[in-house]
Amino acid sequence: MSKTMDLKDIIRKVPDFPKKGIMFIDITTLLADAAGLAAAVEAMSEPFLDKKVELVVGAESRGFIFGTAIARQLNCGFVPVRKPGKLPARTLSQEYSLEYGTDTLEIHADAIRPGQNVLIVDDLLATGGTMQACCKMVEILGGNIVGISLLIELTFLNGRDKLSEYNIHSVVTYDSE
Hints:
The chain has about 180 residues and is of the alpha/beta class.
């Protein structure tokens, strides 16, 4: 059995969470499994080992979990992208669309130097709004996005379409709910 199938077997699906009709992909079971967590970090890091990544950027909050572990694996720094009001120094903000309305993410304005090679990491790609906002902020700060690494991609939501210009690596995909 492949690593991808092993990881998919560890990830739990929870019906009707956070509301009726939603099938929630719960990674807490994977995080609690030492071998599963190690395999996930390795699989997310592997395609970028030779890309000279200088910084990993991860979005709040599960992007922090994988982002810091991948930064350690790639021997580079980590930059958090947070919800508004959580970062103490001057920030750059990016608004993005949700199913109903908008949300905003922020990054420290001095977090990335122009030309730095950046890998953007998150646990899940759904509609692509969060990742698109992260990419825009990295580019505004002058970062060179070498790729996007995701644990899970919900392909049926077409989030990849918003990110077609980037090298996207997904470890586990779900083609339907």
